């Protein structure tokens, strides 16, 4: 079975991500698609295992095998957790609906470390661009501000909301290069500090519910095996 066939025939959940999911799309925005496929269980009984992820087959499309997706989500990977909360769902089957019903089980205070850590790495890249070119990549600065806002609000409320909401116009101004870099730096620093404060009093649990996720994954593998007998 080819990687393309796995995505075509065994996707359980697919969505649109990027600016379109964040409420930041403009006329020229790409359509970034992300998905989760469940490789048939008998494929794991071979020496040549199915891939953990597939790039394509469409442009701007990327999919993960269910187990790999769950592993990354349990580690509070920002991109994976946001994928689970996309407001634009293109396909979902019964197993996909079970996965979406478990969104809350993946959330924990670990998001503070992973989101803020990812943001710190991206900010260093922006700082390097400013030193070398005199300006950051404005689109990347916009998305970093959005991510930090999402992190702070998640820690405060326990809910992950991707929409830029009332910040949309100001974020798009950042993308257009209309906001001075020192003002953006100050905004990022404030969001970082607010995330730190929110983490200390967050309603999120200390750790995700790994046992619940493992039970779901085992059930999905078993059902797949029985369907291919």
Provide a descriptive summary of the structure in words.
The chain has 229 residues and is an alpha+beta fold. The chain folds into 2 domains: 3-106 and 208-227, Beta Polymerase, domain 2, CATH 3.30.460; 110-200. Helix content is 57%, strand content 11%. It is built from 11 helices and 5 strands, in the order αβαβββααβααααααα.
Task: Give a short synopsis of this structure.
This protein has 229 residues and is an alpha+beta fold.
CATH-assigned fold name of the largest domain: Beta Polymerase, domain 2
The H-and-E topology, N to C, reads as HEHEEEHHEHHHHHHH
Query: Separation of termini?
Result: 17 Å
Main CATH class of the largest domain: Alpha Beta
Beta strand % = 5-15%
Oligomer: single chain
Name the average pLDDT: 94
